[in-house]
Amino acid sequence: MENSNTKQAAFNPEDFSIVPARSFDELAVGDVFRAPSRTLTDAHASAFQTVSCDNHPIHYDAEYAKRYGHEAPVVHGLQVLAFTAPGATLLPHYFGKVFISFLELSCNFLKEVHSGDTLYSSLTITDLSPQGDRGIVTTKVTVYNQKSELVLEGQHKYLLKR
């Protein structure tokens, strides 16, 4: 409790940062940023189907999926890729004011994902390329399921101020 005779410090919104921001040069190859696990439900798949407008029956028709060799409807690959969003981790908070843009991404879909699967995603810095007053951060992205199977792997690149 503050004494009424004590002078109150000025409010500064930056004091409410989740983590201290780092400069490009304070990042390190090998830094890992994990997202909380999430179990996919039929509601998630349905919401993504609505947003993506992807109405292929492989994603919602159990009999269609079985007819084509799948144990259940397959979660949209782009929905699984969305689990690698940097904002699902603390990475953008570490970038702070030095973030310029998300440059590119690539991925390989390695295993099917179904409603009821729990996904665990992470981003690991694999390269830091200084380029004058800017730098490119490359991360390896991975998504595992509850069976410890790698279901997606890929790469992101970000442009930061130095």
Please provide the ordered H/E string of secondary-structure elements: EEHHHHEEEE
Global Rg: 20 Å
What percentage of amino acids are in beta strands? Answer: 25-35%
CATH architectural grouping: Roll
Q: What is the terminal separation in angstroms?
A: 40 Å
**CATH hierarchy, class:** Alpha Beta
Note poorly predicted spans: none
What is the arithmetic mean of pLDDT?
A: 93
Query: What is the CATH topology classification name?
Result: Thiol Ester Dehydrase, Chain A
Let me know the CATH homologous superfamily.
Hotdog Thioesterase
User: Helical residue percent?
Assistant: 10-25%
Q: How many domains in all?
A: 1
Shape: elongated
Report the structural category.
alpha+beta
> How would a crystallographer describe the biggest sheet?
6 strands, antiparallel
Work out the helix count. 4
Number of strands: 6
Q: Which descriptors apply to this entry?
A:
single chain; 162 residues; alpha+beta; Thiol Ester Dehydrase, Chain A; 6-stranded antiparallel sheet; 6 strands; MCH/BMMD; HotDog_dom_sf; MaoC family dehydratase; MaoC-like_dom
Summarize the structure.
The protein is an alpha+beta fold and 162 residues long. The protein has helices at residues 42-52, 62-67, 77-82, 91-95; strands spanning 32-34, 38-39, 99-109, 118-131, 134-144, 150-161. The protein has a single domain (22-161), classed as Hotdog Thioesterase (Thiol Ester Dehydrase, Chain A).
Ordered list of secondary-structure elements with their pairings:
Layout: E1 32-34, E2 38-39, H1 42-52, H2 62-67, H3 77-82, H4 91-95, E3 99-109, E4 118-131, E5 134-144, E6 150-161
Antiparallel strand pairs: 1-4, 2-4, 3-6, 4-5, 5-6
